[in-house]
Write a structure and sequence with these properties.
Helix content: 40-55%
Mean pLDDT: 78
CATH superfamily of the largest domain: P-loop containing nucleotide triphosphate hydrolases
CATH architecture of the largest domain: 3-Layer(aba) Sandwich
Distance between the termini: 115 Å
Strand content: 15-25%
Radius of gyration: 50 Å
CATH class of the largest domain: Alpha Beta
CATH topology of the largest domain: Rossmann fold
Low-confidence stretches: 57-78, 87-91, 93-105
Number of helices: 14
Structural class: alpha/beta
Order of helices and strands: HHHHEHHHEEEEHEEHEHHHEHEHEE
Strand order of the largest sheet: 8-9-10-5-11-12
Number of strands: 12
Length: 405
């Protein structure tokens, strides 16, 4: 029985070797074919021994010879010297491993970075994103075209489309560029202003100036130097004869009058040397008039006017008439009126011209507070002492901006 089982096992193994060799296209050697026949003969002999009948063989020994051979002791045959196994005799590769090796050899290698998206993977293999998504959904993976693919999804896609996917570390992004500084709030490019007299008067000559957001600039010059003309152009009260004026990136010189009025009421506040207050209206009502001009909301107009008065430290005078205020207090009301609409740019034309030194200093202190809160201020003055309070200074002479201080 033991011989029979051994022979049966040997026969099975020899058949597996032959089948695998044929699948792999390996030529079966004559020695291996003969070995298989010997295994088969041994199997038949052992079967006959177990059944007590002669083995079915066409050219094998007779029944008597088989019986005598089975009974007679035989000397063990000398073992042949060991030989190197041929390719066909080598131990067969397990079926699964052989299949994997065969698939691996047939797949095209594909390297993809970590974080690759469906759209990027589809582009790499020349397929449409929809095709890749459909394949993933069929395998229970739901992703969007722009979502990064996990490693297991990439492996599934590689098997589906015939690629041996290798996930590599995504290349490091280049250092992000430093953010560009914000565009200047005010840009004057070679601006000129000529008045049509005989002979013509050139009030501004090729004025070029840039003012950043949150800056405090003082424009200093004697009377007739072009200071007020420059302020009128920046405040959209006048147009340049030539050149370009950009406010918050917009070429305001190309706008129609109604558009310029809208920009002026929304983005620019004015403080003049004279206070321009209505004598029969209270302090609060004088401040509210600015909102009437800019067509602001009536619902909270008074509340906003009171907040503006608080900013200039004059809320305690809100119900007073202008006649009961000092010069410095009137100028504070004018400043509150100018900032009611929260403008981007505050233009001040000789704001301390009608005030004594001490009162003027309090007004400049107030400008300093607004500057620190981020308001952009341009102040026209002929007084160098006043100009020193600003962060930057430019000097204008005969219509030309002479330099920055």
């Amino acid at each position: 029985m033991r011989v029979y089982e051994l022979a049966r096992e040997l026969d099975r193994k020899s058949k597996d070797v032959l089948a695998r060799a044929r699948e792999l296209g390996i030529e079966v050697t004559a020695a291996l074919s003969g070995l298989h026949e010997e295994y088969a003969e041994l199997l038949r002999a052992s079967y006959a021994e177990e059944a007590g009948t002669p083995a079915p063989s066409s050219d094998g020994p007779s029944e008597t010879e088989a019986t005598s051979e089975a009974e007679a002791p035989t000397e063990p045959e000398a073992e042949p010297p060991p030989q190197a196994p041929t390719e066909a005799e080598a131990e067969p590769v397990p079926e699964q491993a052989a299949g994997e090796a065969e698939v691996g050899r047939g797949m095209e290698p594909l390297e993809v970075p970590t974080g690759v998206t469906v759209a990027e993977f589809a582009d790499a293999i020349g397929e449409g994103p929809g095709t890749v998504k459909t394949e993933l959904e069929a395998k229970g993976k739901r992703v969007t075209a722009d979502s990064p693919l996990p490693v297991d999804a990439l492996e599934l896609l590689g098997e589906a489309f015939g690629y041996q996917v290798r996930v590599t570390e995504a290349p490091k992004r280049e250092a992000e560029q430093q953010p560009k500084p914000p565009a200047p709030l005010v840009e004057l490019e070679a601006v000129t202003k000529t008045y049509g007299a005989d002979p013509p008067v050139r009030a501004l000559r090729d004025a070029t100036l840039s003012i950043d957001r949150g800056d405090w600039l003082a424009v200093v010059g004697p009377s007739g130097s072009g200071k007020s003309t420059l302020l009128h152009i920046m405040g959209l009260l006048d147009r340049p004869s030539t050149g370009r004026y950009l406010l918050d990136g917009t070429d305001v010189g190309a706008l129609a009058d109604r558009q310029r009025a809208g920009v002026r009421s929304r983005d620019i506040g004015f403080v003049f040397q004279t206070f321009h207050m209505m004598s029969h209206r209270s302090v609060t009502e004088n401040v509210m008039l600015a909102d009437v001009y800019r067509r602001g909301s009536r619902r909270d107009r008074r509340d906003r006017a009171l907040r503006a008065l608080e900013q200039v430290h004059l809320a305690h005078r809100r119900d007073y008439l202008p006649s009961r205020l000092s010069g410095g207090e009137r100028q504070r009301v004018a400043i509150a009126r100018a900032i009611l609409g929260e403008p981007q740019l505050l233009l001040c034309d000789e704001p301390t011209g009608n005030l004594d030194v001490a009162t003027g200093a309090t007004i400049l202190d107030l400008f300093g507070e607004m500057y620190r809160e981020g308001l952009t201020i341009v102040m026209i003055t002929h007084d160098d002492d006043v100009a020193t309070r600003a962060r930057r200074r430019v000097r204008i002479v005969d219509g030309r901006i002479d330099g920055m201080e």
